[in-house]
Amino acid sequence: MKLYHASTTIVEKPDIAHSRDKLDFGIGFYLTQIKQQAINYAQRFLIRGIDAYLNEYCLDDNLDKYIIKTFANYDEEWLDYVALCRKGKKVSQHYDIVSGGIANDKVFNTVDLYFAGIITKDEALGRLKYQKSNHQLCILNQELLNKHLHFIKAHKL
Q: Average pLDDT of 89-105?
């Protein structure tokens, strides 16, 4: 599977230890299958006058020994998982890879309203149904990252 990661540097050897906490799927290395999405993300660097690179990788298909969680939709399970991770709390199930939708600015506004108790879970989920399709894949296991994610190339945007 071909994946992309936008960064201010070329990232040949990703390292989970340098990931920020309180992200959608926890501390890990984030990628996307959608090239344009990664390019759009890189715009936040370019706007600030910082160099931006599009890093390209290949993830092995044979990952049977790893635990992979895929959120196919913005649903209650996704919302609960993101809520825990965004609050910096431990999730009950350990995963090596988590894949699903992004809590982008529009999504995060809805999630914030839900966290604050201003809207119900049902209302939050109703709003999330209409979000533009996007994708993120978070590798949470350094061993998997080292053995199964292969750097292909990077180019400056």
A: 85
